[in-house]
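User: My instructor asked us to take a sequence, write out its structure as tokens, and then describe one feature of it. I'm not sure where to start. Here is the sequence I was given:
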Amino acid sequence: MEIEFSLALPRDAFGIPMVRRVLGNALRTIGVAEDCVSDILLAVSEACANAVRHGGPAQRYEVTAAIRDGRCELRVVDRGPGLSAIPERFPPGDTEHGRGILIMQSVVDELSFDITPGQGTTVRLRKRLAWDENAPVLRTGERAGDGASRRDRDDLLAAV
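Assistant: Let's start with the prediction itself. The structure tokens for your sequence are:
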């Protein structure tokens, strides 16, 4: 099963819950374990928050998701000034800012950045999916206990 989608969002915090809902529903519908869904949603929320906070002067950012081959791959693209450095540890002090990259690193398998100073940043997140064995839809798109038709799978994907 392969699912791909892109969302182009205004640089405003109200779009982050939309990304979480669309992506979370897609992952849950195909039977991804809730702990894995939570990790992915935390990481994409942090990447989106950075795009909202630092993605100017552009008024939009883009989130692209690809779910295939037992992995979820996400790209969050903004047109801001780009990162100047990637932290290696949590910043000192009691700040709420500067921890997003380290949080993302702790919950995904791979994190990378394509940075073009003055033109933008692409954050790439990759995580191997863990499956909920009790989910009614298995990795193959079949319902537990019987084979699902193509129409059943299409109906399930339409619900996402």
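For the description part of your assignment, you could build on this observation: The helical segments are 15-29, 34-54, 100-107, 150-159. Try explaining in your own words what that tells you about the chain.
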